[in-house]
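BUG-584 | component: ligand-complex export | severity: low

The export step for magnesium ion jobs runs without errors, but we want the raw record kept on the ticket for reference. Input record follows.
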Amino acid sequence: MFVVATAGHVDHGKSTLVRALTGMEPDRWAEERRRGMTIDLGFAWTTLPSGATVAFVDVPGHERFVPNMLAGVGPVPAALIVVAADEGWMPQSAEHLAALDALGVGYGLLAVTRADLADPGPATAQARAEIGATSLGAVEAVAVSGRTGAGLAELRAALDRLTARLPAPTVDDPVRLWVDRSFTVRGSGTVVTGTLGAGRLRVGDVLELAGADEPVRVRGLHSLGEARPEAAAVARVAVNLRGTPRDRLGRGDALLTPGRFQHTDLIDVRLAGDAAADLPATLTLHVGSAAVPVRVRPLGADTVRLRLSRPLPLLVGDRALLRDPGRHHVAGGVRVLDVAPPPLARRGAAAARAQVLAALDGRPDLVGELRRRRLVRAGAMIRMGVPVRAAPVAGDWLADPEHWRRLGDQVTEEVARYAREHPLEPGMPVDALRQRLALPDRLLVEALVRPPLRIHAGRVGAAGADALPEPVARAVRRVRDEYGDRPFRAPEADRLVDLGLGPREIGAAVRAGALLRLADNVVLLPDALDDAVRVLAGLPQPFTLSAARQALDTTRRVAVPLLELLDRRGATRRLPDDARIVVT
Ligand SMILES: Nc1nc2c(ncn2[C@@H]2O[C@H](COP(=O)(O)OP(=O)(O)OP(=O)(O)O)[C@@H](O)[C@H]2O)c(=O)[nH]1
Ligand SMILES: [Mg+2]
């Protein structure tokens, strides 16, 4: 299916032409038929000589209804521009063309209608000149009469040639269906319609709806008046959302593939039209079927920041247009450069931002985004419309490589500084390091810690005894020298004092795994436990405390807490008569 929107001044014969081409009535409202004027969007379709189906979105030409017109053309890739032979180029011919140009519509056809009333030549020449200067470029022109039917066959053939040129839709893209109508069908509930510009919808799909707490489910799907299990872009679709209250959604809302769009109310854009400095402070932003008031803050010559009055699901690269509703003036198209721009708090931030924006063109660019954002979640990038083709550094975090290297260096520096300032602590707490580096996620700290640093018991430090301050490490070495060949003899309390091992130093050595504490002032080297089990296993089982003390060549001061520790660890078991066995 192809979708084509009409465009043109009021009363130039758009609806008459659509009616003549399709046999369907695009003016749905009684009021429209009574007044002979389109007010809101109309929908009709026909089969072309090639067999292709073309659906029309028929728009109103009256200047009061330009917002309705914009809601219709927003998501549509091609336009049928209608100019009356007897009136020629008129103000809304120009405004509609400006809108198509602003939105970057690249495909079109000119129908010079009411050709039974006047020579179509002059209107054709003028319209082609105007259109030729826009994104539509040179277009084919056909003179027609909705009244007599003259030229309709040529117009159908020209529509076939137009649709054959349209680029193939991207059916694998996520869905962003801008709602242009919503209504209730008795027995079916809420139904919304829109032009599916990309992607694919299936009955049963779960979609996101801005402002709704819960996802909505596609209960039924219609296209061209028929129920279908699925619809692929480009298509006019009606989506049944039974269960979703009718007042929850309407024109300007969008149904979205979950997780693929971010709602934003702050965007930086490039203008193609009026200069940034000439824009009024408030305008209306038209994108998709939405129209929202925005506050304009000029940044560069052709770049501005827009504060939207309500958030919209926008992507980097989106096209939209700004209009001054008071002056009936299309201020020009905009291209979205950033959907999550940084705040401009500091003096000079706006000028610096203008410089950044000057280098952007709205094409999603992961390398550039990472350079600017330094650390960002892959999901956030995707929701901005930036495809992710880089491996995360941790979890789903992406990092600018240069920034990541700097962070790695900072980890080394911060941990060393912490060790100097807290010599008796076995390393820097992971969370203190996270805060110090202003990292948003502990996973990032963990990924940044590399040997010889390691994370042990929630702290980042050097591995093993290397982590100890030098005087403590020296004392531990002396314990090892003196007691290495009698591993179950613990230094006496006064010897510990001589060695400089007070309670705090012992605590540090124990946390670093360099000493084993059995009781206050009773310490062994850490390998003593395994050695003790080996010695005790060599005894006749069960064995008494005194047998153990002798086998280990030690005193009760060590043997009692040592055996209790082995009991707690499950290496030995104490029997009812106080003898023990080694558990194998
Ligand atoms: N003689 C003649 N009259 C036409 C032709 N096409 C449209 N008309 C008449 O022009 C008037 C306006 O036609 P519409 O089709 O409603 O015009 P429109 O462009 O849809 O108008 P809006 O939707 O209000 O912008 C109607 O009275 C039509 O009968 C034509 O080819 N020849
Ligand atoms: Mg009409």
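Assignee comment: Attached the raw record above. DSSP finds 18 helices and 32 strands in the chain.
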